[in-house]
């Protein structure tokens, strides 16, 4: 990686502002899934061990958007839903040490709490997005955040595709600005995939919307991926583009020309684009009793496709054999609903198996990660990327503002 990291700066005794991604699901005042908190621990523990004063900042959800909506609809808005306090409790358990908390990320209380910190103390600031200045990348708000510390560390890869005050603007006022370990790991894996993948390189793309994934598909094709396996609802836009009947399956009609264009450019670049040959369907009028696996060409008007079929699973598995690099984003079907998780779970297991056989595997996307967990193979993947949008934008070849803002090596 060509960016400086927390290893490259002297942090002992210094006030270090670490932008983390603690945007976790919270229910009834408890953290439901602490994956993102755990992912930030290496950087936090390192800073503690070095005797830094560790100031942590994150966003959680979109409180101001929710507030505006609630006001428009005349319903009550519960600000406490967006508090990072439950995260401080969970973090304290994970670190086995006290975590201080400031009820506002800027202002007198935050300043005072920081001034009382000793080497190795940890302070979590309240949700950055309680201030409109955060998402507006407001200079004044950024300078107020910067006032709290002497060194800036960004470990929030998941927020790096946004130019916000805590990910971009702050670096105008707070230097040095370096990457944390999670940021470094994400960039290392994803740059390798994009620029220097070991071949054969197989990408698996699925999920609901083609439009979300087009830039990634185009970028992977231009970078010389060997095969792209397409599953999930996304496949139906391609089938419809071929004039096949897709029944009531999800299609993005506006994306039909784009799907054809992608097929052409794949062909020109010698990239094998592989679509499902069969799928699990239900009759939309009798979804409970009509489930069956049929070839794609047998689809009729009333049917809706909800998962890839057994033959497709076998074909995709075969295509994954011998892969040295695998990138997967997007479930193969409506995996939240059993038994339409079968295709996705089988592919998750196949990716895990290919990894055991020596492939480097990277999986990104919120739903894809849930699917990995559902299949029980999350720990068998080389790298489970924590950034949804950031991962896709990076692989689409875009520059991430939160990365650009960091000091070069
Ligand atoms: P990720 O979060 O991993 O990037 P996406 O959000 O792009 O993945 O896609 C996941 C969603 O796609 C899931 O909600 C899943 O139910 C849906 N999906 C996948 N295949 C189908 C299908 N055939 N019909 C309807 N929904 C589907
Ligand atoms: Mg999703």
Q: Gist?
A:
The chain has 409 residues and is α/β, with parallel strands linked by helices.
What amount of the residues lies in strands? 15-25%
Q: Classify the secondary structure makeup into a structural class.
A: alpha/beta
Q: What's the structural domain tally? A: 2
> What is the name of the CATH topology of the largest domain?
Rossmann fold
- Rg computed from alpha carbons, rounded to a whole number of angstroms: 23 Å
CATH architecture of the largest domain: 3-Layer(aba) Sandwich
Q: Which ions, cofactors or small ligands are bound in this entry?
A: adenosine-5'-diphosphate, magnesium ion
* End-to-end distance: 8 Å
Oligomeric state of the chains present here: single chain
| Shape call | globular
Say which CATH homologous superfamily of the largest domain is assigned: Phosphoglycerate kinase, N-terminal domain
Task: Outline the secondary-structure elements.
Blueprint: E1 15-19, E2 26-27, E3 30-31, H1 35-49, E4 53-57, H2 63-73, H3 85-95, E5 100-102, H4 108-115, E6 122-125, H5 132-135, H6 139-147, E7 151-154, E8 177-179, H7 181-195, E9 201-205, H8 210-222, E10 227-230, H9 234-241, H10 256-268, E11 272-274, E12 278-283, E13 292-295, E14 303-308, H11 310-320, E15 325-329, H12 342-356, E16 360-364, H13 366-375, E17 383-384, H14 389-395, H15 401-404
Parallel strand pairs: 1-4, 1-7, 4-6, 5-6, 7-8, 9-10, 9-15, 10-11, 15-16, 16-17
Antiparallel strand pairs: 2-3, 12-13, 12-14
Helix pairs in contact: 1-3, 8-10, 9-10, 11-12, 12-13
Magnesium ion (MG) is lined by residues 365-367.
């Amino acid at each position: 990686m060509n960016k400086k990291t927390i290893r490259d700066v002297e942090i002992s005794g210094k006030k270090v502002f670490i932008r983390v991604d603690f945007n976790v699901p919270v229910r009834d005042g408890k953290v439901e899934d602490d994956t993102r908190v755990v992912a930030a621990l290496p950087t936090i523990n390192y800073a503690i061990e070095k005797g830094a004063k560790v100031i942590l900042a994150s966003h959680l959800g979109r409180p101001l958007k929710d507030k505006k909506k609630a006001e428009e609809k005349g319903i009550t808005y519960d600000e406490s839903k967006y508090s990072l306090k439950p995260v401080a409790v969970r973090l304290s358990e994970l670190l086995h040490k006290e975590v201080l908390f400031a009820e506002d990320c800027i202002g007198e209380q935050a300043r005072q709490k920081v001034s009382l910190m000793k080497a190795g103390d940890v302070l979590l600031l309240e949700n950055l997005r309680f201030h409109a200045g955060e998402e507006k990348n407001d200079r004044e708000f950024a300078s107020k955040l910067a006032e709290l510390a002497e060194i800036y560390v960004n470990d929030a890869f998941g927020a790096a595709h946004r130019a916000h005050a805590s990910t971009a603007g702050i670096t105008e006022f707070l230097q040095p600005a370096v990457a944390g370990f999670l940021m470094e790991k994400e960039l290392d894996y994803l740059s390798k995939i994009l620029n220097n993948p070991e071949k054969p390189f197989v990408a698996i793309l699925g999920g609901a919307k083609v439009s979300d994934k087009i830039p990634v598909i185009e970028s992977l094709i231009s970078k010389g991926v060997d095969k792209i396996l397409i599953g999930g609802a996304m496949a139906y836009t391609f089938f419809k583009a071929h004039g096949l009947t897709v029944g009531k399956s999800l299609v993005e009609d506006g994306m039909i020309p784009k799907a054809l264009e992608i097929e052409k450019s794949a062909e020109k670049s010698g990239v094998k684009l592989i679509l499902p040959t069969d799928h699990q369907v239900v009759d939309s009028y009798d979804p409970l009793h009509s489930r069956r696996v049929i070839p794609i060409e047998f689809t009729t008007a009333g049917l809706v496709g909800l998962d890839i079929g057994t033959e497709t699973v076998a074909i995709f598995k075969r295509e994954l054999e011998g892969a040295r690099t695998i990138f997967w984003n997007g479930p193969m079907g409506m995996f939240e609903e059993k038994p339409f998780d079968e295709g996705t779970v089988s592919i998750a297991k196949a990716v895990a198996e290919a990894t055991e056989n020596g492939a480097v595997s990277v999986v990104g996307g919120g739903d894809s990660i849930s699917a990995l967990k559902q299949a029980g193979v999350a720990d068998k993947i080389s790298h489970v990327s924590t950034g949804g949008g950031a991962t896709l934008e990076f692989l689409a070849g875009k520059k991430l503002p939160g990365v650009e803002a960091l000091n070069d090596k």
